[in-house]
Write a structure and sequence with these properties.
This protein is of the alpha/beta class. Among the domains are: 199-308, Serine Threonine Protein Phosphatase 5, Tetratricopeptide repeat; 333-448, Trna Endonuclease, Chain: A, domain 1, CATH 3.40.1350. The protein contains 22 helices and five strands. The protein has helices at residues 2-39, 43-56, 61-73, 77-90, 99-112, 116-129, 134-147, 150-163, 168-180, 184-197, 202-214, 218-228, 235-248, 252-263, 270-286, 290-303, 310-320, 324-331, 334-348, 393-406, 421-427, 437-448, and strands at residues 350-359, 365-373, 376-384, 410-414, 432-435. The chain has a five-stranded mixed sheet, sandwiched between helices. α9 (168-180) runs antiparallel to α10, α14 (252-263) packs antiparallel against α15 and α18 (324-331) packs across α19 (334-348). It is elongated, with a radius of gyration of 35 Å. 32% of the residues are buried.
Length: 449
């Protein structure tokens, strides 16, 4: 009887041992199948299999976490959040419960969904639980930056950097915050830390180029854009700025080639295409190819009728058809423009003697002269504008201050457009004359004849 009992017990143990072995083998087979599905890209098969497992074993945190990671890879963030919250609600007592990891994933999912309020709450919790970790400070800085709170973002980034001073992503974030805050020297100092380690970094070179442009350091900016132009993310912006700088240095043929090549890039964004056409039009004007500029302006207007001053440029061109001198005034080179301005001065008053003539940064021209007006010898400061934008009170006020600096007794502003009502109001009671395009045409007709 005892022997029979032993045999039965052995068979029972063997039976359960076989069941356990089968279960282990099935789990191993299933996990191998999951790994194969994930590796070969069959993510949906992996998701279906994991959903089937956790349906039978809802407290299986390991497989649920595998499912969450796949959802995150597939950018299915609401599904990932749902399962993360399930672990928080029901899986906390399991031995493999990892609260910091779950909070981190939860916050990152909220951030990806642009749910900044929820992301802020979770990252704040992570910061409180581990104040020596740079990661939550860095993420809180990114959230504040997205909210537009640049100063607060800067403080978080600086704190993160103090905890992890070698982290280049944090250094980069600090530099870009300085850039957005227009703290250009600080931005340069910070971003050059990364450039020393990686001189070819396209993103850093692009933003250093942007900063150099703001500081009017165009040659330095040009060199940085050359290093960022081959990266797809920064190609269009870099080429636009390369073309503008070439135009600034009067390398018109090179600028023409750059803008033309840019317009041919497949899939070029609409805004970049419009800007490239506009800048190419400006180059054509400098090359005195008005017909090509008009073609580009008309193409821009066919896409959007309100782009920059294009409509005004086309209207101005219509006005120039009746006056070759007005066309020359508006579209000639800077040196020829200066010569036309000098002729206007000499025809404006008797015995005009030009004392000083200067090109201005806004492409206008200033001429200080001595002449006879109403039989009285006087000094006159002239300001010549050409462009598509109307002249406002601020510009006229600045010119009046320049009159006082030069001790000119009279001032004359001449434009190819019009002045605002406020500009005329400012001139009342002052020896300051504003001449619009109609008066300009009359003066130019005298010179032409």
């Amino acid at each position: 009887m005892f022997i029979v009992f032993i045999i039965i017990l052995f068979l029972i143990i063997l039976f359960f041992g076989i069941l356990y072995t089968i279960r282990v083998l099935n789990k191993a087979k299933l996990r191998a199948s999951l790994k194969k599905n994930i590796k070969t890209g069959s993510k949906q098969d992996a998701i279906d299999a994991l959903l089937n497992i956790i349906k039978k074993h809802p407290l299986d945190n390991k497989n649920r976490m595998d499912l969450i990671n796949i959802y995150i890879e597939e950018k299915k963030f609401p599904e990932a959040i749902s399962h993360l919250n399930y672990i928080f609600t029901y899986g906390q007592k399991q031995p493999d419960f990892n609260e910091p990891e779950i909070n981190k994933l939860l916050a990152e999912c909220y951030l990806e969904m642009n749910n900044l309020d929820e992301a802020l709450k979770v990252f704040t919790l992570l910061r409180r639980n581990n104040p020596g970790d740079a990661y939550p400070y860095f993420q809180l800085g990114k959230i504040e930056k997205k909210r537009g709170a640049i100063e607060s973002a800067s403080q978080y980034f600086i704190k993160a950097s103090s905890l992890d001073p070698e982290n280049e992503e944090i250094i980069k974030a600090i530099g870009l915050v300085f850039y957005e805050s227009k703290k250009y020297p600080e931005a340069l100092t910070t971003l050059h830390i990364i450039l020393k380690k990686n001189p070819a970094d396209p993103e850093i070179n692009y933003y250093v180029g942007e900063i150099r442009v703001e500081l009017k350091q165009y040659q330095e900016a040009f060199n940085h854009y050359l290093k960022s132009k081959n990266d797809p993310l920064y190609m269009a912006g870099s080429l636009l700025n390369i073309g503008k700088i070439l135009h600034y240095f009067n390398k018109l043929d090179d600028a023409h080639k750059v803008f033309t090549a840019l317009m041919k890039i497949p899939g070029l964004e609409r805004d970049h295409k419009l800007e490239a056409m506009y800048e190419l039009g400006e180059v054509c004007l400098s090359q005195k190819d008005i017909q090509k500029a008009i073609v580009l302006w008309e193409k821009i207007v066919s896409i959007t009728s309100e782009y920059k001053d294009v409509k005004a440029k086309l209207e101005q061109y219509e006005e120039t058809k009746s006056s070759s001198m007005l066309r020359a005034y508006m579209m000639t080179s800077q040196s020829d423009f200066m010569n036309i301005c000098k002729k206007i001065v000499q025809n404006y008053a008797k015995n005009a003697i030009i004392i000083r003539s200067e090109h201005q940064p806004d492409l206008s021209v200033e001429i200080f002269s001595q002449a006879v007006c109403n039989d009285v010898s006087t000094t006159i400061l002239f300001k010549f504008f050409r462009g598509a934008s109307n002249i406002g009170q601020l510009t006229v006020r600045e010119f009046y201050e320049k009159m006082k600096e030069t001790k000119a007794k009279q001032g004359v502003c001449i434009t190819t457009t019009e002045y605002s009502p406020e500009a005329f109001t400012f001139c009342e009671g002052r020896v300051l004359e504003l001449l619009e395009v109609k008066e300009l045409v009359k003066i130019l007709s005298k010179i032409e004849n």
